[in-house]
Here is the input.
Amino acid sequence: MTYTNNNGGPAFPCQEEASTSFSGCPVTIHHSGMSLRDYFAAVALQGLVVSTNYDTTALCAEDAYRLADAMLAERVKKRRGKVGG
Here is the structure.
């Protein structure tokens, strides 16, 4: 399986403020969520599972990450202006 260092950043980042900390002061908690690469792979996996017949789940998962990596690569190209649209 090809692995890219570009995980796309967080898919669902959020910030929440807790009412109090141990000191009694409000605290801000940052959640990065799953990576965009993992999110793309999960969405791709749903389509692969219902539309194809894999011999092993590992092959299906590998293809899901291949698709996720391809989506991230296209995203980078678009940001650099290499793809029309």
User: Anything to note?
Assistant: DSSP finds two helices and two strands in the chain. Residues 54 and 60 are 6 Å apart (CA to CA). Residues 34-80 form one domain.
